[in-house]
Every structure is written in C-alpha cells, then in structure tokens.
C-alpha cells in the first residue's frame, strides 16, 4: 500500500493529543490512518506509519494498536502495531505487522551493523587459535570443520572468508523487528534484529545480536555480540557474550557464557561456560559446574564438573574433547588436554591427560590419584540405553523451520563399531604389553581385559546383526531383481568414519568436501550445507557399505559367498545378542529397586511401612516407564529379527 503525507486535520488532531514532530512533512501514513491512536508521540526524521485497526489481548486485557508515550525517530512501522511507554526512543528501526512493544527504555540502531553476524568467537582456545565467525545460519557441522581443521590452512582461510562474506551481506544501518513480535518490560535493545514470532520480556540489555524466529528471551537477560537461532531460549538472568545459541537450545537460571557455541537442543542452567563447543544435546544443569575449553556432544555434566585449560605456564592454551554420549559424575575434574572416547562415564579427578578414544563405552575412574579405565563397562548399563532412546524425543526443533544441524541419532553406528573393533585390538595389545595403557595416560586392571573384549564383541555383533536385518527387511523378495543384486553396496572403501558434531559420516567423504572447498568447486556456505545434506540423506546406503566391508570380520564370510541360509543364521545370532544385552541392562536397571535403594522410606513407622512407602512412591519395577520403554525397544528388535527370518525361509521355500 502506498504512503501519503498527513492531512492538515490529522496533524491538528495529533497535536491536540500531545504529539509533536520536527517536521510533519517527513511523517507519512497509509490510507485509513487513524490519528486517535497516537497520543503523546514525538516524531523525528523519516517516519512511516501503518494502519491501526486491531486490538491486542495482552495478559487477558484488550490493548489498542497505535503509539502512546514514545519518541519515534527514522522508523517504518507496520500495521496493527502497539507501541507504548518508551523511556528514551525507538530509532532507526523497521517494525513489522502485529507487534507489541511496551515499557522499553530504548531501542535503536547506531549505524551500519551486522547484528551479531561476523562476531569472532574464541571457542575451545581462549587465545583465539580456533576462533570462528558466528552467523545466523551457522551449523554444528560447519563450525566443527572451521574449528577443528586448522591443520589445513587453505581450507581454514576459505571457510572463514565464506562466513565473513555472509556477515558482510547482513550489514545495514537500520534495525529490524519482524512481524508478530512481543517486546515488553525491557531495558536497552541496540543493533539487534528480532525475527518473526519472537518474544522478549524483561530483558535488561541486548546489544549487537540476532534473536531468531520464535525465540524466547526472558527476565534480566544480558546479551552482547550474539546469535540466537530459531526457537532458542535465553531466560532468567542469563548473561552471554560472543555466543551462538542453536535451534531449540535453552540457557536459563543465571547461566553465564562467553566465547561459546551451543548447538541444537542444548540445555544449560545455573553454571558457566567459557570457550565451549557444545554440540547437540549438551546438558549442564548445576550452579557449581564450569565447562571450559572443551568440545562436547550428547553430553551430561554432573554437578561440580570442572576442567582446567590453564596449567600456569603459557596461558589458557589447552583444550579437551569429550565425544558423543559422555557424562560426568558429581565433582568430576579433568585437566586439559584430554580426549575421552564416546559414551564414557568420567568420575573423580584426572590430571594425567588421558586419551581413551580407542576404548568407547567405558568407565574412567580415579584410583589412588590415577586414571583407571574399565573398558566397555558402560555398554551394559540401563542408563546408556535410556540416554540413547531419549535424545531423539528431545529434538524440540519445529518441523516447519529448516533444521540447521544435521543430527544422526543412530547410537551404534559405523563410527562406534569401527571404534569397537579397534577396542578389541587395543585390549589384545594391552594383554601383550601391559605398559601400553600408560602411553595413553591411564591404567587398566588385567582382569578387565577379557570382560571388555566380550562386551565389545557383543556390541559389534549387535550392530552388524541389526544392520543386516534392517537391510533384509528393506528388500523386495518378489522383485525380478535378484536378492544378491539388491544387497550389493552403492559405495566402497568407507571403513573410517567421523562424528561431525552430530553427523556421522565417512572420513573420506568429508575429505572430498574439504578438497572441493579449497579448489573452488564449492564456493559458498550454501554449497557446503548442500554437500553435507547429501551425506546425511545417504547415511543408510553408506552404512551398508561399511557393514558389507566388515562381514568377514564378524561372520568369517564375504557378501558374495553368503547364502540366504547364512542370513538366517545372522538374524538368529542377532536375536541372541538382543537377549544378552537386554538381560544386562535389565539387571542394571533393577539395582534401582534393590533393598539398599529403600533407605529413607517408611519413616516414623519403625520400618513397618518401608515396602508400602517405596511402592507408593517408586512403583513396581514392571511399571517403571524407563524399563518399559527399554523392553519395548528390544521387543521390536526381536520382532524384526523374526520377521526377517520368516521372509528368508519363505524365499527358500521352507
């Protein structure tokens, strides 16, 4: 709709309502303008006003659109916007339709700004040696490559240049509030973009940032040089500086962070983060917890968890990596550098810089001041499967918003299985050379070697059996295409895999992407995302290639020599693996229902009502929702194995 100048009677009515303007000729309106909706407003600069037809309902109270008690300078304001009680001014902003802005001290753009895009974050290394530029569409995968591949200088130069170019394109002298935004009870909002559907209530100060679509920013939040991706939440006194908050992530209850990245579905409260790369599903909920200089993913920090990146020699130059699925017990401490393998539980204090990457699913304990590793101990726990089953359900990202981070929730995947095979070899080496663990800065007790090998073999067998059965279930046994042809892999040579902050991919494929970035075949961030998305979409096909390459390792036969009878044997063997691992994890779960867990129940009854009180509060084991979900998971697996066997037997005419 076209804008026009104010008519004389409209100016007169505005002035009668206490409105002023440095020049009424620079205030333009749409046809249908209602001057009665503007009371005690000071206009300056070029101002465009939309129509004011609708009422808002704010906390159950009807509120009229329009502007009341405010100074407006160089602004374009959309239709049906309510602005009231602005302490200083709203200056140099474009405001979309259906916005509610009230009780705000000041909202202004100071000049050309990129609104948090292009802010340099010194992640992992506080010295800036692994820094990257944050921007609104940053993904965990691109961040990982930027931060961790510094050995490839040409690649680093190119990918940082892409991010800088993206950020430079966002530069503008005018701020933006998109449609359906609520901003209420806030202090200062400066050089900040607010996307559609966001709600900012009670924030103290937001400077140089972007608040993404459907974000929530709450009371007493202080944020500077930041990006909040869609559906992020920063609330209740949190303070962030040079921080990226990923999609559907939450920082709350006084959490403090600087120079850190939090990707999709993180939840951090009360504690502190410094120079942290928090991959998807990183959780820290305790006031006494400090995460510093580390990379985490699918991580849960126990209360009092702490690390040191400074050895009082050359400064805070050290970093650590805790791979997917790690967790720490209360008061766990690690002196960086250290590298902890996937799905490892860390308890106690570790100052010798352990590298446990060859032995996933372990316990890393403190024993007489030294790091003691119990290999594969975490494979048989109910907590492990509980974590695995919950992560997918806790993906809070909306399906109608493009998901930035590519997350693979497959817990037993080619990367983990490759590590499991490595672990078996490592334990063999430890048996032959008891000093070998010391070269990795931890110890292993001799009696744990055999048990570790057995559990790793079970894990490998489970993955291989599950993968073969799922592949068999996807086949069309009635097709004219022979089963042997349907089983042939599309890829080859994909044995080594890596975890790109949530995306499980073959190392070789990532190498191709890096080469194409360096040689100019890929020349934009969008091009990188497209290639990574292709890997994400082709995961199952690439995983099958890994499985085929390892059939002989697990079953002593190659694919081309296997018969349908062999596949029946594999499905039956997988059923045995399911039963074994289910038994381990159920036994572990029942420890929470043991007699020692009933301490503190049945108080004031001389012990007579212990059992009744325990059942009233905890319920019966068979009614436990976590146990039930775990058992349903394994029941489905067993049904899949049975279905595959029946299809194979039918194909054989049995």
UniProtKB/TrEMBL annotation:
Pfam families: DUF4954, DUF6819
Matching InterPro entries: DUF4954, DUF6819, Trimer_LpxA-like_sf
Cross-referenced SUPFAM superfamilies: Trimeric LpxA-like enzymes (SSF51161)
Residue ranges constituting the DUF4954 domain according to the UniProt record: 3-428
Top-level taxon in the UniProt lineage: Bacteria
Residue ranges constituting the DUF6819 domain according to the UniProt record: 483-647
Name of protein: DUF4954 family protein
Organism this protein belongs to: Muribaculum gordoncarteri
Lineage: Bacteria, Pseudomonadati, Bacteroidota, Bacteroidia, Bacteroidales
